[in-house]
Amino acid sequence: SALLTVAAPSLCVLGVTAVATASVTGNDAPGEAGEDIALGGDELDEEAAEAARAAHAVANKQFDTQLQGLTAAADDYAERASRTQGRIDLEERKAEEKRLAAEEAKRKEEEAKRLEELRPKFFLPVERRGLSAVYGQSGLNWANLHTGIDFPVRYGTPVRAATDGTIRTQYHVSYGNLMIITAPDGTETWYAHLGSYVYQSGFVQAGTVVAYSGNSGNSMGPHLHFEVRPGGGSAVDPAAWLRSKGLEPS
Ligand SMILES: [Zn+2]
């Protein structure tokens, strides 16, 4: 509105100049038109004075109209300026909110990434308490050499996913209740002789309790038989595999 504050007085000056010009035109002598004319006392002077007053009145009226117009214009401008400012404020606030939301999303993403990097990716399937049978061992219970390692745990011991992966389960005459978790790289970890399942399908993260140990299938007593099969192929020594992940099973 600063623009109009300046504009209004300058138009006032123009208006006043117009009035002065109109007054002077009706007289021979310069000076204050009304006074000179009134003092003359002449018929023509009276007419001239009347004409001057009329012109003055017209000029005043024009000036008033101009002023009214200016006032209206100023009000209109102020209102539009206010609306424009309001819109700018709203847009700035929206932009700021958008920027803050983007920052927050980025911060959360970085925090999630950091936590994901910190998260252990491999776990022992049960708490460490030594092994009751090692890989490759021969014995009466196995038709061939032992394809996994046995953890001597009590019935109902929580069994954790050794890797992230997708779960499937099946019953096998020798393995009993068997859970197989397939890691994203294709490595399978097998958990045999289970007592019960927590999950029977779906994707879990390493360390999730997925089942409870038991004595199902060809088992001479409660324990967890654990196998590792890279790419879903032949079994390798789980103890060596766990050690390669920084875990000590025995
Ligand atoms: Zn075994």
From TrEMBL:
Q: Which SUPFAM superfamilies match?
A: Duplicated hybrid motif
Name the InterPro entries on file. Answer: Cell_wall_metabolism_enzyme, Dup_hybrid_motif, M23ase_b-sheet_dom
Keyword Coiled coil listed: yes
Q: Which residues form a coiled coil?
A: 88-118
Which molecular function GO terms apply here?
A: metalloendopeptidase activity
Question: What Pfam families does the entry give?
Answer: Peptidase_M23
Q: Which keywords does the record carry? A: Coiled coil, Signal
Q: Where is the signal peptide, in residue numbers?
A: 1-22
Q: Where is the M23ase beta-sheet core domain?
A: 145-238
What protein is this chain from?
Peptidoglycan DD-metalloendopeptidase family protein
Read off the Gene3D superfamilies from this record.
Glucose Permease (Domain IIA)
The organism named in the record is Streptomyces calidiresistens
